[in-house]
Design a protein that fits this description.
It is a single chain. The chain has no helices and 10 strands. By secondary structure, the chain is mostly beta strands. Strands 1-10-9-4-3-2 form a 6-stranded antiparallel sheet, with no helix packed on it. It has a 4-stranded antiparallel sheet with strand order 5-6-7-8, with no helix packed on it. It is globular.
Length: 105
């Protein structure tokens, strides 16, 4: 039987500047929280291709470029945009309540 989804608090909205990302480690997860024009998106922080940290990557529009092998992903969907990455990133459903970012995991 699968575990029910739980709501996990990640950070305050003010912790992530617009156009930037923040690494958050909580509940056994290492996540990248992105702020794109005031909307928040969350994906696994460790690149699916190697040991790169996506929260430390380069954001261009809706794309995050990994700082390790320069592959990139769509921040909103987790889909691969640029090789050498081949496996999409896991993304999470985000809610913002009282200036706090939450995910369901």
């Amino acid at each position: 039987m699968t575990q029910p989804m739980q709501t996990i608090e990640l950070c305050k909205t003010s912790d992530v500047d617009e156009g930037m990302a923040k690494k958050v480690e909580t509940a056994g997860l290492t996540l990248a929280v992105f702020n794109l024009n005031g909307a928040f998106y969350v994906m696994d922080d460790v690149c699916s291709h190697g040991p790169g940290s996506l929260s430390e990557g380069y954001i261009q529009g809706e794309t995050i470029e990994c700082d390790f092998h320069n592959g990139s992903f769509n921040i909103k969907t987790g889909e691969v945009v640029e090789p050498p990455c081949l496996i999409p990133q896991k993304v999470y459903k985000v809610t913002v309540k009282d200036d706090t970012v939450f995910i369901e995991a």
